[in-house]
Design goal:
Blueprint lengths: L2 H40 L15 H12 L10 H4 L1 H10 L2 E6 L2 E6 L2 H8 L13 H7 L8 H17 L5 H12 L18 H5 L2 H13 L5 E5 L4 E3 L2 E3 L4 E5 H5 L2 H4 L15 H4 L20 H18 E5 L7 E4 L1 E4 L5 E5 L6
Parallel strand pairs: 2-6
Antiparallel strand pairs: 1-2, 3-6, 4-5, 7-10, 8-9
Organism: Quillaja saponaria
Membrane topology: Single-pass membrane protein
Main location: membrane
Length: about 350
């Protein structure tokens, strides 16, 4: 074989090697990385639905959500299996913590209270917020909710003053807004705590029953069903060793509807369960209830939102009773937050005898 033949063989070998390396690079993320990740987590007792090449479990998730959304739903607080049917099914099948796949990206779903609090209370930035969806970023901007690092710290400091230092000064403005909605001519009702027209900070602090009702409402129907984080570096979480770049999905909707935490009456509306400490309501699991988050990134508007809710509700209940409209169709859906798909239709009944 001559020199030309040897050169041709060398060229073909080089081409084959190049194609092999290119193929390895192409398949590394959608094939080799998932296999390695699944083995690593399975060896630690973390199971989950099997990885499907390229799409992961996204098709299964989409089909399960579509299937449940197409079914009529009875008037019930048992919304977990409807809003997140895949989480509901896989939690019951694989355990409180399991691995699912969004394309080739591994996602550890965490519903164990102790691990969740460890993640949310971490202060050395081991579990930062992940990349923001383009649509969400366009909607929310690069503000406090989605920012991180030094930028978040500066914005949080300013927001703390706005929502805490100035929140009590905003109570009169909240009352005026409620008056505008309800009408200034309405007379007061017979509320046993707030007997006068305008509630003040002392009145709001005494609304224990209303606080219990609000807590039970956001337990059963949390506005935010969970939080997403990333693992910034290899780290130990509980007894687990988590690799870098693993995504974490914290699901408080799963916690709020867990009978092991809340009892067999978990799907019943029982505000009295919050009459004492959270630990008593959750079988001594104080980490099981965090509707506004936990740790450094707890919702900065928590107190503001609760005060606003109490003011508006107290002023409504001074003037009206209400019942659910017969035309109401129960269909909770998730669009950023949980909301009724067809709105809330209620019928208000005036408590003023001359208006009846």
């Amino acid at each position: 074989m001559g020199i030309m033949g040897n050169l041709l063989i060398l060229l073909l070998c080089s081409l084959c090697l190049y194609l092999f390396v290119a193929l390895v690079k192409v398949l590394h993320k959608p094939w080799w990385t998932p296999i390695r990740m699944q083995y690593l987590m399975t060896s630690q007792g973390i199971k989950g639905p099997p990885y499907r090449f390229i799409h992961g479990n996204t098709k299964e998730i989409f089909n399960k959500i579509k299937e449940t959304s197409d079914r009529p739903m009875n008037l019930s607080n048992d919304i977990f299996s409807t809003v997140e049917p895949h989480i509901y099914e896989w939690k019951n099948k694989y355990g409180k913590n399991f691995l699912q796949w969004h394309g080739p990206q591994a996602v550890l779903v965490v519903t164990e209270p102790e691990l969740i609090i460890e993640i949310l209370n971490n202060k050395d930035r081991a579990y930062p917020k992940g990349k923001v969806n383009r649509c969400v970023k366009k909607l929310l901007g690069d503000g406090l909710v989605k920012s991180k690092g030094e930028k978040w710290a500066k914005m949080r400091k300013l927001a703390n003053y706005a929502f805490h230092g100035e929140s009590l000064k905003l109570l009169p403005a909240m009352v005026d807004s409620a008056k505008t909605i309800l009408g200034r001519g309405s007379k007061k009702g017979s509320d046993p705590v707030i007997q006068k027209e305008d509630p003040n900070p002392e009145d709001i602090a005494r609304l224990k029953t209303m606080t219990m009702i609000i807590n039970e409402s956001i337990r059963l129907h949390p506005p935010v069903i969970g939080f997403d984080r990333e693992v910034a570096r290899k780290i130990k979480l509980g007894k687990l060793i988590l690799p870098a770049n693993l995504h974490l999905r914290i699901r408080n909707l799963a916690l709020n509807h867990d009978p092991q935490l809340w009892g067999e009456d978990v799907n019943y509306f029982r505000p009295e369960r919050f009459s004492q400490r959270i630990a008593k309501a959750t079988n001594n699991n104080t980490a099981a209830f965090f509707p506004f988050g936990n740790g450094p990134r707890t919702c900065v508007g928590l107190n503001f939102a609760l005060n606003e809710t109490k003011i508006v509700l107290s002023m409504i209940l001074q003037r009206y009773s209400f019942t659910l409209s017969p035309s109401y169709t129960h269909s909770p859906v998730r669009v950023l937050t949980i909301r009724p798909e067809h709105g809330i239709q209620i019928m208000l009944h005036s408590l003023n005898s001359e208006e009846k």
